[in-house]
Amino acid sequence: MASNTVAHSAQVQLYIQYNARLPPRSPAFQWPSGPVLLVAQLGLDAILFGQNSTPGSTIEYDRAFLKHLVKHIDEAIEECSEEQAASLDTTKEDLTVDDALLERYMTLVSLPETASSVHGTHIPCALHVIHFFPTDDALTLHPVLGRCESVVLRQEGAAISQGTTGLTTWEASLRLAAHLTAQSPQIWHPQARILELGSGTGFLGLVCSRLFRFCSDPRTDFSLVLTDVEGQVLNRLQETVNLNNAQNVEIEPLNWVEVSAGEPEALEQIRRIRPTCILAADVVYDPGLVPCLTDTLLVTLQNGTTRDGQRPYALVASTIRNPDTYEQFLQSLRERHMRWTIVEAAQPTWPNLDTLRLFPSVHNPETEGQVCILHIEQS
């Protein structure tokens, strides 16, 4: 049967996906193998829901998660041989779902449905999504994951139904953030000036703030500016930055339409920021905004800062859901004399978990679109 090390890795695997609030019914959710799960279930309740647990889940999510967890444990018991049971110092007949997990699940099952479920609207409650990533520069040692950082987001269940795309974390943002965690020593320096366009939930920018916490020294020229349009999205962005206690982040409204129109105030704002690097993720979705986006990219590159011979550049990550819209974006770059190369994105995984990517998701690239990262410069 599984060793303690393998069992702990399985507990970490479940802890990361649970806190990322991945739907447990998804085929992309990674469950430990049956023999490993039988060992890993012991103490799992305390890890997920005890003193080391993280706040912000919902009854609905916990109930769904535990339903599938108990189902997988039951299947593991059913498939367990007598020899495997003996290696656990028990018999197959005595194998059971861990008492603490089963009791918690039965308690949640007995609770009433929320109002939205009762009335048939099926809009999930807001919950907090927590993404962890390992880094040697972390200030604290996590009791379950070791030395790592985290970003906490309030995920709105109704955001998409209301058309507020900026309140949802999209796949390209996750993949660009993972790429940056692997590339940060080569890409960034204490004099970096980072501008993010269309920051939305703030996830990508907050990962940067964690990666470059050392750059908050006021004696450096470092800056990290997150931007989006004024209104609900920008307000939520500020709330998220406050929630994460990010000290080295500035938030500013920036309207691409105003930049494209040459509004003096918008142009002066970009001149003041003078970025060395522009970041943008999942911003190519509205054909009507593509010209304004590419105009904004051009203006930021024209007014950027060159550091150590490196011209200002942009990293734009897109989930290609509509190839025609993406081709319009590329054509718009050509018309503005910007050149690009496709970045071979790093895909870091968790230590001892070779199949679990940093910032996991259940995104299916075959049906929901491939992610492409472009490195863009002015010709």
Précis, in short:
Helix content is 41%, strand content 18%. It has 379 residues and is α/β, with parallel strands linked by helices.
CATH topology title of the largest domain: Rossmann fold
Total count of strands: 12
Helix content: 40-55%
Mean pLDDT across the residues is 89
What is the fourth-level CATH superfamily of the largest domain? Vaccinia Virus protein VP39
- Helices, by number, come to 15
Write down the Rg.
Answer: 23 Å
Please give the CATH class of the largest domain: Alpha Beta
The percent range for strand residues is 15-25%
Number of domains: 2
Characterization of the model:
It contains 15 helices and twelve strands. It is an alpha/beta fold. Strands 6-5-4-7-8-12-9 form a seven-stranded mixed β-sheet, with helices on both faces. A three-stranded antiparallel β-sheet has the order 1-3-2, with helices on one face. Residues 115-122 and 158-167 have low confidence and may be disordered. The protein has helices spanning 4-19, 34-40, 44-49, 59-79, 82-87, 99-110, 115-118, 171-187, 203-211, 232-243, 256-260, 264-273, 290-302, 323-335, 365-368, and strands spanning 127-134, 141-142, 146-155, 193-197, 223-228, 250-253, 277-281, 313-320, 338-342, 349-350, 353-357, 370-378. Helices cover 41% and strands 18% of the residues. It has two domains: 1-110, no CATH class; 127-378, Rossmann fold (3-Layer(aba) Sandwich).
